[in-house]
């Protein structure tokens, strides 16, 4: 008999169907109208959706743990319906060599509530040896504002299979606009969208003829989307909830809390991002969870660090907006779950045989006002304060219940390190 069966209303391939999902050793082994199992969990109410894979979080551990750490960040992820995160390398020390990779994986294995991957930060020193890191990390991150773009040619010659994720803003271009910004509108002008587009074009020009798996993180402007439109099949593109839901304006207060890179832009950019998300031109939604403390944000705008927290609100807020606007849920689940998993070569994000048994249960009628004091971030604030969201009541990761009736029952250290296995690498196909 099958170890565990979960029965309820599932969203599968765009349809809501009542069925049973059979699970053995954390993996989905069958999906059928009826199934017998040693353990059976029924959800007579609520809808069961895949949980999210957030490929862009800054958990700040090690070294910056006054902002967040692997426990608080992944606990927040769990309450936000995210069963897997991939952590960015700008920690202290930065994740740029074997020792720092191993240290971060061991921190995650001790502290993580959800499954996690890590990025290697690509720099001048490790660039030539990226192949040596293929077995160690989940992906590669290239932060172009700090990267010598003349090295892109060198990068294009490498034969690595893991995703190269680019933060696309061109340093020289930013420096040209260069003056201090005192508010969000000025910030958007000094880190103009043309600097994003220029970076996108430079990467595309160098990488066009390669088989490298290129991902553009958090694209924020309509002109970058235009530059990308010719390459739709070759590269993947991400967007954040904050770029979809906010524009640079005086009404966002305090202004410094909304300071982020790339900056919030205009309502025309927002419209273009929505259109591209709904058409599938944008592949995925990523939170770019980048927490800073209230003390760090409560300074003069020009001195405040860039970044907003978002891993816990990403799925709830987007689910609420999709429902309110009548957009297809299937599209949202693709952008939050199945597509990021597939792009990064992870067996997650889909309710189908062979996938990890990762799901959330949601009650679509239960909308909640987002309040920082109900979230689990160490930083204690959210840019989505007062907005509405639909939070999961239950979360399963690899068949284990982590959250039950909105209460944590999972353990710190349950989260496993994930990376694509040989032969199951990242895939662009839909
Ligand atoms: O706004 C941002 N904050 N953009 C980044 O690229 C980095 C991030 C951070 O780590 O705080
Ligand atoms: Zn980031």
What does this structure look like?
The model has no long low-confidence stretch (mean pLDDT 96). The strands form three sheets. Strands 3-2-1-4-13-16-17-18 form an eight-stranded mixed β-sheet. Strands 5-6-7-8-9-10-11-12 form an eight-stranded parallel β-sheet. It contains twelve helices and 18 strands. It has 430 residues and is an alpha/beta fold. A hairpin with a 2-residue loop joins strand 17 (400-404) and strand 18 (407-408). Zinc ion (ZN) binds at residues 56, 58, 88, 288, 290.
- Beta-strand fraction estimate: 15-25%
Q: What number is the mean pLDDT?
A: 96
Integer-rounded radius of gyration? 20 Å
Bound molecules: (4S)-2,6-dioxohexahydropyrimidine-4-carboxylic acid, zinc ion
Report the strand count.
Answer: 18
| Distance separating the two termini | 34 Å
The helix content is: 25-40%
> What is the SS-derived class?
alpha/beta
Give the strand line-up of the largest sheet.
Answer: 3-2-1-4-13-16-17-18
Q: Globular, elongated, flat, extended or rod-shaped: what is the shape? A: globular
Number of helices: 12
How can the largest sheet be summarized?
8 strands, mixed
Succession of helices and strands: EEEEEHEHEEHEHHHEHEHHEHHHEEEEEE
| Stretches with pLDDT under 50, minimum 5 residues | none
